[in-house]
Fold each of these.
Amino acid sequence: KNRPTTMADTTFADLEARGWCSAEVASPYVRFFEHLTAQCVPRMLASCDVVGDSTSSSLTRVLDVATGHGVVAIAAAAKGGQVTAVDFSEPFLDMAKQSAQSKGLNNIKFVQADAQKLPFDDASFDVVLCNFGVLHLGEPDAFFAEASRCLAPGGKLAFTVWVAPPKTVPFEITLRSVRECGNADVPLPQGPSFFKYADAASVASAMEAVGLEPTVLAEEVPQTMQLDRAEDLFELFATGTVRTRALLRAQTDDARRAIAARMAEEVRTAGLNLPCPACLSVAVKKS
């Protein structure tokens, strides 16, 4: 019973796909992260000039990649954009469709597809958005190349990731608790560094490699994670994420209980409202 879950013969892409395509992960993700990940969306849309309202005459062609439960796509559609929303996860797409329908939006098209192999023509969008999706991709550079290909000249790509700890307090508490109460070096599928694109130099290099000119490099956007209980921080990472869920599942039962107790103790000290800023980058397709 005290034996941890193993990840033998699982690739990073398999881990991510299995996790996000499961309602067991998708539902708690929405429950815990919806309010948080929506906080940077106004800044993200403004950075790409997606402005106005649903009655505006704007025909901006917007592609929202890794749309999840549709927060960005719905916000862009409400601004009058002609939106295509992509995700490989059927549970997330179902939630996004239901949310769009409940808001009476008919200017969003939902497509199940891989962010790294987008099924769209060259130069077919004015804006490509990706809110906290890049860090779940096995080949983020492939997505950046696809985003560049799909953008019309002068079009903009905007994407967000998490600022690296310790500024993102929920991640700092969780990773420190694992280090101190468990085993941070359990064998997990190797993927790109989770906080790689919180680094301005890494973003600049990635953008320039695909013909995009950075205009905003790793701008910090304030956000706050709001918890109802101290125990919720462990629960959200243990149920509503993929990488960190795998890390926690790979601990022994005793270590997992100790990690959960430490995290709750730290939240009681820090408070239920934890700073968790986003990191926004924007780049323009060269003419």
Amino acid sequence: MTAVEGKEGIKFEFEAGEKVFVSHGNLLYEAKVLHTEVKNSETQFKIHYLGWKDKWDEVVNADRLRKFTEESVQLKKSLLRKIISPSRARERSDPDIGLPAKMRKVGDRKVTEGEGIPSAPALSAEQSSIVLHSTLKRQLIDDWEFVTKDHKLVPLPREPSVSAVLSTWLLSNSRRGIADKACKEIAEGLREYFDMALGTMLLYKFERFQYNQIIHGSAVAAKPSKVYGAEHLLRLIVKLPTLLVRARVSDEKQTLIFSKMNDLAKFLHKNGKLVFLPEYSPAGQDYIAKTREE
């Protein structure tokens, strides 16, 4: 029941101007009800996601809305923890590609394949998380929308490239006096892992034809980290909690890596206008036709 009619007219379960939570995918997002309407005896609500562009406004049914209560706030946190928790990460079916040696040996000896996962207690969701500023979260959503909905592509080669972004991050840390050995090893490990993982876990289906053209279509093989940019690097960063659990990385090393990744995420946020594209390029009908042929 989303609306009742009384002496003062129709009263809706959610009113215009009310702050609510909206279910989207596996998470809850804060939003505001813009207005309500009844179509075919069904009440619908147009909502605006708080902190997001107007283009994300949408019309939803009441079953996707929740009152803005303390219970809903806790549910939102719980759903977010499930996304990044190690226990859920072990259940995922991502390809088990081992992390490069430079990332496995950070701050300690290299962990070999036969050692197994340490018996120490698993990291909590809070310890094994990468904190993203809202601008980076919007970047991920825009990235998904551009490619999967708008049929747009990141124009390649990107400038700055992944390699250049990581080098600039290291230079920035050097100027701040925090570019230690671990930081350099992690940057190199990320660069290597990006080259290895891009084609298997970081591309949307619509991007694969472009990838094959650029990476495999030339006489001289190009390293993805020299061709792709921060848009695809961010995709790797958000996958790291899952990948680290699947790799043989001790809790101590995970904590160190997450610390550096959070610093890198802050760097990407601070320099977002320099490293991220505000708009992708339309793929064109010829490209779209070729993707359908594959």
Amino acid sequence: ATSSPISSASSLGELLEVPPSSQHTHNRGKKSRNFVQAAAKRVGPAVVRLDTELNSPAQDRNRGAGNPPAFFSRGIQPWQYHASFDPDNRGQGSGFVWDARKGLVVTNNHVVAGASRVRVSFTNGARYDGTIVGADEAADLALVRITLEDSDGSAQRFKEDFVGARLPSVKLGDSNSLGVGDWVIAVGNPFGLDNTFTLGIISNLRRSSAEVGIPDKRVEFLQTDCAINPGNSGGPLLNAAGEVVGINTAIHADAEGIGFAIPINRALRVLNDLSEGRQPTHAWLGIQMVTLTPAMSREFNSLANASGVLPLTYGALVVSVAPNGPAARAGVRIGDVIAYADGAPVPTMARLQELVEEAPVGHPMRLTIFRYQFKPALWQRILGKPAIP
């Protein structure tokens, strides 16, 4: 179902009553009507808008990050980051305060990549300069530190902006506890409309980066039908208790109600490294692959130019091998079907990605491969693309 703004959510009636763990009262002593209102009051002040000035023209930015109708990465993949950029080298996205004491704001890497200046704006009108502490392109995450001191070294303006001289911050939840159908709330600044809340559900718990169309990212995404638009990138995805369970990152450009968020449990591994000055590392095989299906296997075996019979109907089919990468050095070839990794079955490419991501960097991984000889025309028919040399 397509999600709708919270102003129309009251039609859901009792389904939106405040969960016992998140009941909250207004200043007038009345209980919030539903959990969305409670989350908005609790989390809204900690969600920020990030305005950036870019070092390079917007059209040269990280692929997929441009304004519509630039919907396709490399011209073939139907996904789009939901940051917003204009031709004047200015960009806009969202973020949230993760560590109030250190002034650390979480956002997506594609929101701030290439930025010469970052400005952080709060809902109370306070604005501060931000410094990029660290970023991980593979996980599409970045940390920005807010500059709280005035030019004279004092924090007087900050103290005037926030009661108690403390930044508002979010509470983190457990993304592993989510289930399909659970309520979630997307928060951000779509098209510059600050502090916009939209309601939806979890549609899928484990979308691989290859399924989403960004195979160079090392993340499995949550899928949601919350309304998400350009400018939402980096904003939090909340559970019914108002806790952050994801970071809104991408949308499917050819559809409505298909958005993707980085699970907060996965993000924390990267964010902890970045906050301590370490660059996150990721295990890497150096291949691109698709999931072998029974239909693809039948297609292989029916072709006149096939030189043998492919015995498998499952596995990760290698479609590209990075020169001088680990797989290339081990002798992996285009057309190989990876059936096992370290003895574990590989029914899909997503499973192989999981096994690689879980492995320590430098770990020697043993692959069980079925090798199948073919001619280049096979790729044009099976994959709809030329063979990769």
Amino acid sequence: SIWQILEVMVLSALAPLSLGFHAPMTAVAPASRAAVRMQVGYVAPTAPGVAETPLARGNAPLGIDSSILVQGGSLRTWSYRSPSVEQVQVVLSTEGRPLDADIELWQGPDNTPCKMRVYVENGQLRPFSAVVETPRGPNTIAIRNIGQVEFPLAANVVADNVDAPSAECLDTRMTIQGGALRTYPFDPTVDSVQVLLKTDGRPLNARIELLQGPNNNKQVIELYTEDGLDRPFFCILETPGSGNVVRVVNTAPVEFPMTAGVVPNSINQQMSSDAVLGGDVVLGGDAGW
């Protein structure tokens, strides 16, 4: 009949349109699979004869330096669940730019038994290195770069081969009353200095400054510890050049005295302490013509 003929003609006309409608779906399928592979971290196999790079493997290259880059305004944490980790060493450095960071020890919810604010004028010349006591784990070390985005820093926290104060540093400790300060000048041959602060079990509030010249702060550490006997503070300050003076201030009230030991850590035997014409100036001395 006429209706059957018209139905056949309409179906034959719609067949190419249906094929054209389904064709793009088959073409998009490989792209969608590639997008899914990118989301799940799929890495295509390398061609035969081509060396497989660490980026192609999806793993970072294994190196000796385990430092983590902390951008300005960001936070990184290191957690230690084992109670056998009783102390860790924190090392901060930059590529020559200033360093400004907050370091906190977290133990349990809303409990910060130790925290410090660190400023270094040149993080490459004077990297920051301190030992944080972490008894009775689990503990978490939190490092926040409070500098601007233009000042990233490299942070490393290790629990093995931690620095320890020398016998001279332990034997030469002196009492600093609350609100008092004490200065320790050093010879130009001294490359680094040990600083040990401790109390009899009372809270420890102190400010450590490395000066090179009149009121010229090269490094500043503002420290708080809830128990200076259970969590003493120990650090090593790099002191390149001449005219270095370490100033320790007890910022706590008079009821909270502390003991401080500041001694040389390493000495450069090749550096001469005499004045050199055209070199460093020695205060109170004149260079002969």
